[in-house]
Amino acid sequence: MSLENDPDDPSLPLWLREMRRRERHRPIADPYDALLLEVVFATHRGNLDRLKVALEALTRSRGQVDISMYHDYPDAEGMAIMGETLLQTAVKRDHLDVATLLIALGADLEASVGYNDEMYTSLHGAVSHNNVVLVRLLLDSGADVHARWYNGSDDGTAIFLATCGRGKAAIDTLEILLDHGLDINDPYHQGRFGNRLMKNAVYAGGSGLELAIHLIRRGVALSQHHYACFCEVVSDRRSPEGLRFLVDEVGRREVEDYLMALLWLVREECYPCPAAPCEMRLEIIEFLISRLICDLGPGKALKDLPEIDTLLRKASSHGYTALAQLLREHEVGVTGSPPIASNHSN
């Protein structure tokens, strides 16, 4: 963040204006100060012993030292430090021992600075890296779990950043934040298409969509869009496990969703996407078709769905022969009685 940005810009929300007013008074380090540069270099490299020596030399020379100054070294001795405090530098590079020392020396946990118009605290940096140990250290040391970040166009709390990760580390980070008081269904997370945490998770992807599944099990509020979004990403990721979770555990059993997942599967076949064995793709296709047939109800056939001919055309034109063949086995594409609407609604 540029510390010279107008903190009284009326177009900005009040919390951001207050944050900018506070940060405007943060001391800015002299980039040509050799003693300070040595401290920054040791912090950047994670060299704890060198940092202790550098801090001692700086203290002897200057007396009291502010270790929460704003540092900006775009290209000094191979470092690229742009708008950081020492603690943020240590956290950004996962230097636990250095971060522990700086916190013990009184580093400002709520310093909210960054490059250009960004404003992130050290906690936000640790959460972004899904560094569970550093997240615990910062929260146990008194970091504000409700602190907001700003990137020039969007903002939120640390939980939003956690859902941009993937795998067990992201889940563990999410759990720590929830345990410290953040709300998975905070109204602030609601966007145009529902809960943005879920949208983050499903688009982050990852093996088995672990984080998205975990959010659902933790009770995240789902909108129609998120059910659809989850179905799309499951198809894109070629995850039979994730798809079965959606249907069997979450209870998504609507004909329109099965059709949408199949259409997405066919459409994505034309673009670069995660590779999957043919048998896995066939397993997904067969599962979706079987659910379609099951949920149509008595007296109705797959070929009667209005959208099914579109699916056949796309499958045929995109070379998705397994799906096209399966549809033809159910007489899709055969002229006959006019199509009927499904018995489910969005």
UniProtKB/TrEMBL annotation:
ANK repeats lie at residues 82-114, 118-150. The keyword Repeat applies. PROSITE patterns: ANK_REP_REGION (PS50297), ANK_REPEAT (PS50088). Gene3D superfamilies: Ankyrin repeat-containing domain. SMART domains: ANK. InterPro entries: Ankyrin_rpt (IPR002110), Ankyrin_rpt-contain_sf (IPR036770). It holds the Pfam family Ank_2. Keywords: ANK repeat, Repeat. It comes from the Eukaryota. This is Uncharacterized protein. It comes from Gaeumannomyces tritici (strain R3-111a-1). The gene is 20352141.
